[in-house]
Design goal:
3-stranded antiparallel beta sheet; alpha+beta
């Protein structure tokens, strides 16, 4: 299946302002089930330059310089990709990681250290996560992760929030509501409190009932752990 995604972000200001360098991540990675066919970016005002880098996680990042002050800034990105979800390989959990707790191998522990360290140290999140461990000391890893997912889905309410940023996981836990990015961060910090590595990803969800002309599907970006 071939997907085309057009994403427009516009900022409006009360007066003309100068702009610093902007970092954009809109070019998805190629994978076993996904191949990027084309991508392009348009900026208004005219950019003074666009250069590309790979960040520490291997993401392709566009660094955009803005040529002049303006009262409006617009980014329009387009990607075209071949997505074949049925090409998923038979992914298996390593035998040593089937039951929690387990220890990461010495060859990957250093690379995973920043993904294991809690970024919002708060014992409330750790206490909540430890409720899902088997009292006898060994828990099936897959069951543990799925139980955490279902606990967030069934015990928390989705609440659309326009404010920028992500709320601290302890606040999400206290309020029992948040956005997808808040829930993803809560899940990440919960498993980090248990010594597991986790990271944040974003992307698009295809929504068939929004099909129409000329656009098919649509919706906002979403966040996952």
């Amino acid at each position: 299946m071939i997907f085309g995604v057009r994403h427009v972000t516009t900022y409006h200001y009360r007066r003309r302002v100068r702009f610093g360098e902007h970092h954009l991540m809109f070019r998805p990675r190629d994978s076993y089930d996904q191949r990027l066919l084309s991508s392009n970016i348009a900026v208004d005002p005219e950019p003074s330059g666009v250069r590309w880098i790979h960040d520490v996680f291997g993401n392709c990042v566009a660094l955009v310089g803005i040529s002049r002050p303006a009262a409006r800034l617009l980014f329009e990105t387009r990607i075209l990709l071949d997505h074949t979800p049925q090409a998923v390989p038979d992914l298996q959990i390593e035998d040593d990681a089937l039951a929690y707790p387990f220890v990461y191998g010495s060859d990957e522990a250093a690379d995973l250290a920043s993904c294991i360290r809690p970024h919002y140290p708060d014992d409330a999140v750790g206490c909540w996560a430890r409720r899902f461990l088997h009292p006898r000391g060994s828990t099936e890893t897959g069951r543990l992760l799925m139980t955490l997912c279902y606990a967030i889905r069934e015990s928390f309410s989705y609440s659309r929030r326009q404010e920028p940023g992500t709320q601290p996981p302890a606040l999400t836990l206290e309020r029992r509501r948040g956005t997808c990015r808040d829930f993803a961060l809560l899940m990440m910090e919960a498993v980090r409190a248990l010594g597991l590595a986790a990271r944040f990803v974003t992307g698009y969800v295809y929504v068939p009932h929004r099909d129409g002309s000329p656009n098919r599907g649509g919706g906002s970006t979403h966040a996952w752990c």
